[in-house]
Amino acid sequence: MSNKIPAPIDATHTDAWLRLNLLRENLKPDLRRWFADNPTRAAELSFTAGDLFVDLSKNLINKKIVQELLQLAEEVKLAERREAMFTGQHINVTEDRAVLHTALRAPADAGLVVDGQNVTEDVHATLEKIYAFADGVRSGEWKGVTGKPIETIVNVGIGGSDLGPVMVYEALKPYVRDGIECRFISNIDPSDSYNKTHDLDPETTLVIVASKTFTTLETLTNARLVRGWLLDALEAKGAITPEQRGAAVSKHFVAVSTALDKVAEFGIDPNNAFGFWDWVGGRYSVDSAVGTAVAIAIGPDNFRDFLAGFHTIDEHFRTAPAAENVPLLMGLLNVWYVNFLGAASHAVLPYAQELHRFAAYLQQLTMESNGKSVRWDGSPVTTKTGEVFWGEPGTNGQHAFYQLIHQGTQLIPADFIAVATPARPQQDEGVDVHEVFLANFFAQTAALAFGKTAEEVRAEGTPEHIVPARVFEGNRPTTSIMAPALTPSVVGQLIALYEHITFVQGIVWGIDSFDQWGVELGKKLALEIAPAVQGDNAALEAQDPSTQALIRYYQANRTR
Ligand code: F6P
Q: What is the mean pLDDT of residues 318-329?
């Protein structure tokens, strides 16, 4: 194997796995009794990581299970793998790359040198360049081609070059400077670029084209569409002459990429480009130059706090004792649910409207990372991997899908996330609305854990034939995560927490959580099918019957 990364240890062959199987067989989940029998259960299973208070006590675990899960981590040599990541070994085996998103938020004196590159120096030099640019845009010193200051940032990117910046921008809206708005174009559906640009003033718009590879079809197409819109709109209002189109691009387009040569080919001045490195995975990149839109919106000081938040959790993950290590425990808990209790999905339910894109962000982070069927040595996985992550902010989810979590037949572990101090406090008839909101959070996690017995339902005078429908079994596992407020640092901490949870699961399953070969086939086929869609009959005939029929339907029904 390349880079001397040892072959994965098969978790299912460890002693801990066998003992966990026995524990599962004898498990009789009874959170009511477990809490009644042990008055200190909540305290024993609550932990702190940075500003995050994490209560694991409403999970289907006991001391013995936690002990064996930690033993499992030892047996698969999780600590060694973690150190391999932090020190820049090429743990992304299939792409032969280091995995160093943790270096993006390490302090300037970290002094990390990997593969002959002074990673820390490079990271901080780029950060200073981004901060200077962000300051220039925020102060109005950076002007559009007609001399007007920038008011709207349009980020064009997809996947990791979109989901992170959108999610963080939304999460930190209260920190966004008045007079600056960010919009995000990702989908190649032309409606997306139209909807995000048609009402903008091109004179005050700055476009960031964000693409790690600078080859992604969606992003390059959208970047060309937006460039066309911006230049045409400037010309149409007489703001520039046709000869000034190039000058307008240099004032209104910047790029974020690892491929600065391709940025230049696109026509963006490499001086207006912010680089990053192949050891930053797309879904781990919001803390790199990919966060430039966010850095402009919230300002360099807040962005520094955001990065410091990540680093706090990195340090915790790297150094906290295993029994108190929150990402380690949460990652192992997910293994417990997926591999021993049969969970196929995991809900993430933020009780903070600002986190309304958090689940979407986590879907790429977790599912592109751990949706794999082979291990990093190419051998098949030996157990289930990659549960589905999903969610919506509370209380919206309560009125939509919580029914299934409460009374359905599937086990769905859920993470509830809330902050003590709201971003936008409001009173309704003398009542603090945040308190009503949080009461829902607390009520839901209690109801899921403790349920409602038939006796309790009957005691309410419920007619007997309705009693079964109103019984809540309880024992539906939840983790509660709370923080003082949704500050830039806390947002960074939450992201890093889930990054490391994802890492832990990947190591137990023996998979390379940092490649994404599974998205390649569809991309390639789309390119092959495009001529068929555009009317090339030979290409159409080469498709399977179902695809041919769909394309014919399209051709018959398309109006122009
Ligand atoms: O969907 C595959 C993927 O490669 C993601 O991993 C990545 O975040 C996204 O495409 C966008 O890639 P790029 O930043 O290179 O445009």
A: 98
